[in-house]
Write a structure and sequence with these properties.
By secondary structure, the chain is an alpha+beta fold. It has two domains: about 5-80, 2-Layer Sandwich (Phosphorylase Kinase, domain 1); about 85-235, ATP-grasp fold, B domain (D-amino Acid Aminotransferase, Chain A, domain 1, 2-Layer Sandwich), CATH 3.30.470. It has six helices and 14 strands. The longest helix has 23 residues, at about 145-165. The chain binds uridine-5'-diphosphate.
Length: about 240
């Protein structure tokens, strides 16, 4: 399958049309942004890692019965995916307090939550992706009740599968962001699953304030060793 015209360029990926109207090609870049685009940089080799890791995760989740947009990996940076209509919600699942959750609710980072949580943000850069609840999402016609129920069930199923997968690799899955799309009347998991969109901590390191991040927090917080952290995750999941 070949790239035709570019349909879209985002912060970390480009999307191209293909000869098949049902499919697009996603092309992963090394560009990194944080804080809604305020912080910009590059993480050498990130595009390759995020492409291959996302595809591995999507294939693993498909095997667990979760429908995804994945079709075929073309090469290191390019993947054919189903052309979905993205539901404009960022879906965040948390197992351990970190980041904006810790700040907002005054809970130290690393606090294990009594149960996994789900939250939705309105995917809208101009508004800074504001947090909203399901009533807001329905009121704004961002999704139907059935879609929100499906997304919620799928997101927790993804959490169960991913937590188990990373536990084997001595990595704690702290939190992550998912996006979903509509494809031929069905909700499918879309976008990416990578160190850009997940917090991965070295196992057990959450019980101290000195947890070891193997994810984009190394870039966001200027912790150094950004490329090494991405490479370490890539190695642990068996891709390098
Ligand atoms: N996240 C993301 N994209 C966003 C916001 C968050 O992928 O635009 C991911 C982030 O990597 C983390 C989780 O969602 O794994 C929770 O992020 P949080 O709300 O704590 O926001 P942050 O502290 O990163 O601003």
């Amino acid at each position: 399958m070949e790239k035709k015209e570019q349909l879209y360029e985002g912060k970390a990926k480009k999307v191209f049309a293909t000869e098949n109207p049902d499919y697009v090609i996603v092309s992963y870049k090394d560009d990194a942004t944080a804080f809604n685009g305020l912080k910009k940089g590059t993480i050498a080799g990130k595009g390759v890692i995020n492409n291959k890791m996302s595809n591995l995760m999507m294939k693993m989740l498909e095997k667990k019965g979760i429908p995804t947009h994945f079709v075929e990996e073309l090469d290191d940076r390019n993947t054919v995916v189903k052309k979905v209509q993205i539901v404009p919600l960022e879906v965040i699942i948390r197992n351990v307090a970190a980041g904006s959750f810790s700040k907002k609710y005054g809970v130290p980072e690393g606090t294990i939550l009594a149960n996994p949580t789900i939250e939705f943000s309105y995917k809208n850069d101009e508004l800074g992706d504001p947090l909203l609840n399901t009533y807001h999402a329905l009121a704004l016609r961002l999704a139907t009740k059935e879609e929100i129920d499906t997304i919620t069930n799928m997101a927790f199923a993804v959490n169960d599968a991913m937590k188990a997968f990373f536990k084997e690799l001595n990595i704690d899955l702290i939190d992550f962001k998912l996006e979903f799309g509509r494809y031929k009347g069905q909700i499918v998991l879309a976008d990416e699953i990578s160190p850009d969109t997940c917090r991965f901590w070295e196992a057990g390191s959450w019980d101290t304030t000195k947890h070891v991040s193997l994810d984009k927090d190394r870039f966001r917080r200027d912790l150094g060793g950004v490329e090494d952290a991405y490479a370490e995750i890539f190695k642990r999941i068996g891709l390098n």
